[in-house]
Specification:
Layout: H1 3-24, H2 32-37, H3 48-66, E1 83-90, E2 97-101, E3 114-115, E4 120-127, E5 130-138, E6 141-143, E7 150-153, E8 159-165, H4 169-176
Antiparallel strand pairs: 1-4, 2-5, 3-4, 5-6, 5-8, 7-8
Length: 179
């Protein structure tokens, strides 16, 4: 046998050995993404009772999601003249209560509240058209209005109540709807 024939037999034996090893290896797995989107046949069996139950559940979800949200209609006074706005705070154990806000340059000493029945403190302040931030001062401590409709940050880690005077009904509705 010539050297060339022996070389070919060696090459053939080598190729056979490699091919046998390749044939015994498992096929590479497809990625989970390809398996997820691969076309396959699916058979669904739907019984009338389960179909009706599914339809009822879907209808219930649709009703809950689509139900109208009811909000209280705000009281609107449209005027250019100053309006008396009553500020009140229930603080039965307080000794001194005053009011500070945009309308009095944040000086609580200028707007003291008067103690009423049951420990409810009140003051009426004439305010023109606009949006005003305010806070109560109870025995020297700043207290936010717990009954306010809205607030804004006070710049000190707290918040101040907001009162809007003379706002039109359309503007209030737009704000209530997030506009």
């Amino acid at each position: 046998m010539s050297e060339r024939e022996r070389e070919r037999e060696g090459d053939a034996a080598f190729v056979d050995a490699v091919m046998r090893r390749v044939a015994t290896r498992p096929l590479p797995r497809r990625s989970w993404w390809r398996r997820l989107w691969a076309t396959r046949e699916v058979t669904l069996r739907i019984r009338p009772a389960s179909w009706a139950l599914s339809a009822a559940a879907l209808a219930l979800v649709a009703v809950v999601v689509a139900r109208p949200r009811h909000t209280a209609a705000p009281i609107v006074v449209e005027t250019e003249a100053p309006v008396l706005v009553r500020f009140a705070l229930a603080a039965p154990n307080a000794r001194v209560v005053s009011l500070a806000g945009d309308f009095n340059a944040w000086r609580p000493e200028t707007t003291p509240l008067v103690r009423g029945a049951g420990g409810v403190w009140m003051a009426e302040v004439p305010l023109g058209r606009g949006t005003f931030s305010y806070s109560f001062v109870v025995d020297g401590k700043w207290v936010e209005d717990p009954l306010a409709d809205s607030w804004r940050a006070d710049g000190f880690g707290g918040r101040n109540a907001v009162v809007r005077v003379g706002e039109t009904a359309a503007a209030m509705l737009g704000r209530a709807r997030g506009g």
